[in-house]
Amino acid sequence: MSKLFSRDIWSEIIEALSSNWFRTLLTAFGVLWGIFILVILLAAGKGLENGVKQGFGGMATNSMFMWTQTASKPYKGLPKGRRYNFKIGDVEAIKQSVPDLRFVSPRNQLGGFRGNNNVVRGLKTGAYNVYGDYPEIIQQQPMDITSGRFINYSDIQDKRKVAVIGESVRKGLYETGEEVIGSYIKINGVNFMVIGTYTKKSQGGGDPEENQKEIYVPFTSFSQAFNMGEIVGWMAITANDGASITELKSRVFDVVKARHSISPDDDRAVGNFDLYQEYSQINGLFVALNFVAYFVGILVLLSGIIGISNIMLIVVKERTKEIGIRRALGATPWEIRSQILLESIFLTIISGMAGIVLASGVLALVNLVLDGMDTSTMMFANPTVNIGVVFIALLILIVSGLLAGLIPAQTAIRVKPVDALRTE
C-alpha cells in the first residue's frame, strides 16, 4: 500500500497527465461542466423552493380555511339549495369532537371584494379589509407588530372596540409622523380605537402592499358593532404538529353537517381551501425537481466520464512499451491496474472539484446580487446547496473515476510483456 502511494507513483501520474496538457484540459472540462451543471441545478431548485416558501409568509401551513355553501341534497325534510351560516357554537363543538386541532379561529369580514370606502378618519376615507378575529390568528397568519399590540382575550371578553391596522392603512389615513396609537377610526360608522400597527410579507406570491391594507378587531366587538349576532363568516383551522389537517377535515365537516342538518353525503355544502394539501403538493414538486437535477447533472457528468475513459485508453496505448518493460521487470497486474485507476480518479476528482468551486463562485455572486434586492415578491431566494450535496458530488466523482479507469486498466493488464516490447 505504501508503494502504491509513493512519491514515484504520483510523479509518474503527474507526468502522464501533463505530457499533453491541452488534451487533459479538454477531457477534464467534461467532468467540470457536469458537476457544475449538477450543483447549479440543485441550487436553483433550492432557490425556487425558498422563494415559494417565502411566499407563504410564515403561515401555519398545516391549516385549512372553511366556509358555508348551499346544500346540494335534501335532508330531513329540508330542501336542497338552501343556505346556512356557521354559528359561534360550532367552534366549541369542533374543538370538542376533533381534539387534534391546535386552533379553530372563527372569522368575520367586511370590505374585500365589495370595494366600498368603509373606513373614515377625519376627511380621509379608504376601502380596507376589516376582520373580526380571535388573538390566535396571529399564529396562523404571522405578522410583525410595529407599534402597540395585537388584540387579546381581554378585548374579546369585554367586547372592546379596538383595532390593529396595517402600515398601508396608517399611510392612507394618517400624516407622516402623526401619532396612531390611541387615535380613532370609524369603520362603517362605528368608532374603534387603534391599539397597534403591523406589517407582514406577501402570502402566496401576492402583493405585499395589499397585505398591509387590513384591519383586525376583536371578533366579539365586530359581531356586536355590525349586527352579526352568532354568525361566523368562515373559520381558519390549524392541526397540531404531527397531525394532518387533510386527514382531519372530514371529521370537522361531519360535525358541521350534523349541527346544521346537512346530509352526510353532501360534499358541496362546506367549502374549504386545504393549505396543507397545497403545500404538500408543492413539496412533492421540489422532490421531483431535485430528481430531475440529479438525473440531468449525472447524464452530463457521464459524457465527461466517457471522455476520460477514452483518453485513458489512448494513454494506455501510448504507454504500451512502458507497461511491457514494467511487467518484464516484475510489476504485478495490480500495480499496473492501480496506477491507471489512480490516474483516472485523480483527473476526475481534480476536474470535479474545480467544477464545485466554479459553481460555488457563481452562487455566491447570485446571492450577492439578490441580497441587494427586495425578494419578498420574487419566487426565488437564496439559492444554495448544503454540505450533503457536496459529499454526494464527491462520492459521484470517486465512483465515476473508478468507472472511467476500469476499462483502460483492464486493457493495460492484458498487455503481454513480449508483445509490448515489440511495439514501436
UniProtKB/TrEMBL annotation:
GO cellular component term of the entry, any: plasma membrane
Intracellular or extracellular location(s): Cell membrane
GO molecular function: transmembrane transporter activity
InterPro entries membership: ABC3_permease_C, MacB_PCD, Macrolide_Exporter_MacB
Predominant place of localization: membrane
MacB-like periplasmic core domain ranges (all copies): 24-252
Keywords associated with the record: Cell membrane, Membrane, Transmembrane, Transmembrane helix
Highest taxon in the source lineage: Bacteria
Keyword Transcription regulation annotated: no
Membrane topology: Multi-pass membrane protein
This protein's record includes keyword Acetylation: no
Pfam families per the UniProt record, alphabetical: FtsX (PF02687), MacB_PCD (PF12704)
Chain ranges passing through the membrane: 21-44, 291-316, 345-366, 386-407
Domain spans labelled ABC3 transporter permease C-terminal: 295-416
PANTHER family the UniProt entry points to: ABC TRANSPORTER PERMEASE YTRF, MEMBRANE COMPONENT OF TRANSPORTER-RELATED
Similarity field: Belongs to the ABC-4 integral membrane protein family.
Name the UniProt record assigns to this protein: Putative ABC transport system permease protein
Organism of this sequence: Ulvibacter litoralis
Source organism phylogeny: Bacteria, Pseudomonadati, Bacteroidota, Flavobacteriia, Flavobacteriales
